[in-house]
Design brief:
Two copies of one chain form a homodimer.
Chain A lengths: L4 H16 L6 H8 L4 H6 L3 H31 L5 H17 L5 H12 L4 H25 L5 H20 L18 H16 L26
Helix pairs in contact in A: 1-2, 1-6, 4-5, 4-7, 5-6, 5-9, 6-8, 8-9
The first copy, chain A, binds a DNA duplex (30 and 30 nucleotides) through α3.
Chain lengths: 231, 231
DNA sequence: TCTTGATTTAAACGAACGTTTGATTAAAAT
DNA sequence: ATTTTAATCAAACGTTCGTTTAAATCAAGA
């Protein structure tokens, strides 16, 4: 079964955008690689920007639907007593599942998405934000129930931190690779990455809350040590 | 005192690159804004890429020297018993200090740097990595002493998470802005941001270590709750 | 079979890009 | 005063870009 031109263009564009970025990938680059005519992009999508928009819709909408679905499963199962760990999982998993899909291009899209988070192009940001809004709001409420000690502001910032870390991980640009000590670490081992990021995020989300952020030098009072236990 | 052409170009390029990205900022855009001749970029720097390279060197080298300097001060003061919080501060502060410099363009550069972390352009990545290498290695050793319970692998990943979160925060693209509940949060309040990110990172860095990352459903055993205490 | 609408195609459009050139000006050295 | 070097300038170079056009091809429906 041969996919139609529209899907071929989307798949090829996804691949090349993820590899090279939006501006460094021309329509000629895409159409040559996809073995379709140059004009077919503008015929089927209208413009390069519209192609990019469709590309994000195709992936983000199902991904966030999956997030909400997982959240609803948790709510049905545990009511208001969802474990923070599972809540974070419900948010991480759909993205990481895409990340494992090296066959149909999901992994490429996730890289692209992560990079777009820190891109300057504002129009695309607005579009992505709108695609994210429903899922983010649902999860904010869920986090608020699981972490009742956090003020709305604190919760906002911590979700901000969580989303930011995930964005960086999705982008897959490993700035730490320069450290010789860890050449053995496989940054492509998604499952290990998820497990470790989850622990990090769980701890971060339930970090102690401080009132006055005016400490600039040694003050151990605000630092609370967590025992490091295996298993 | 009038700055010379070279610095004017660097400052203007920094500003425009931060606003619009590399590919969306042309040399004509820069030279027009800087009120210098178009050819002067290639005369003084050789090429657009070389200009970008110089731009990063100008900021990153002093910033990382400052990081190492702060680390050495801590080592001199506390030997091997540096508080994790202060270690993270020593790494965060020089970047955030630049972020506060809205006068001389440091804030713009930090945004640019954060975005570059997740950019696809590989040549620039390698250059940045080389500029970072010495500071990263020093801090890795320091973290290893402060967090002796972490294996080298674990430490590597957690520093990866820390650097990633900071990169996202530096980029300043607030994907969470869509949440209506927190319109009051000022994302430009750098000091509050630092304080909150510090707490988050301190908790994340000393999260419990798990051996087997095979839990996909409800298992509260690995989740360890930290009391949330003000002050 | 003829027609109609949807797709594909080759070719061209104008605009914007990074870079280069050769002349011109400014400053410094002899 | 003359030469030499550095810097600036307007203009053009050759490419590449996203987009458009108009003809050609294809697939049914009448």
């Amino acid at each position: 079964m041969a996919k139609d031109t529209k899907d071929i263009i989307l798949d090829t564009a996804e691949k090349l955008f993820a590899k090279q970025g939006f501006n460094n990938t021309s329509l000629r680059n895409i159409t040559t690689e996809a073995d379709v005519n140059l004009a077919s992009v503008n015929y089927h999508f209208g413009s390069k920007d519209a192609l990019i928009q469709k590309l994000f819709e195709r992936r983000i909408i199902p991904m966030n639907e999956q997030r909400i679905s997982k959240l609803e499963q948790l709510e049905q199962k545990y009511g208001d007593h969802i474990a923070l760990e599972n809540l974070i999982d419900a948010f991480m998993e759909p993205a990481m599942e895409l990340s494992r899909d090296t066959q149909k291009g999901g992994a490429l899209f996730i890289k692209l998405l992560g990079r777009t988070y820190t891109d300057p192009s504002s129009e695309l940001h607005d579009a992505i934000r709108q695609l994210y809004a429903p899922a983010i709001e649902r999860f904010r409420d869920a986090f608020a129930r699981v972490l009742p000690e956090l003020t709305p502001d604190e919760l906002y910032w911590r979700m901000h931190f969580m989303v930011g870390l995930l964005a960086y991980l999705m982008a897959g640009t490993d700035m730490m690779r320069l450290i010789a000590s860890c050449k053995l670490c496989d940054p492509l081992d998604t499952d290990a990455l998820i497990a470790r990021a989850r622990m990090f995020l769980v701890a971060g989300m339930q970090a102690p809350v401080i009132e006055q952020p005016d400490n600039t030098d040694q003050n151990e009072s605000t630092t609370r040590r967590v025992d490091s236990v295996a298993g």
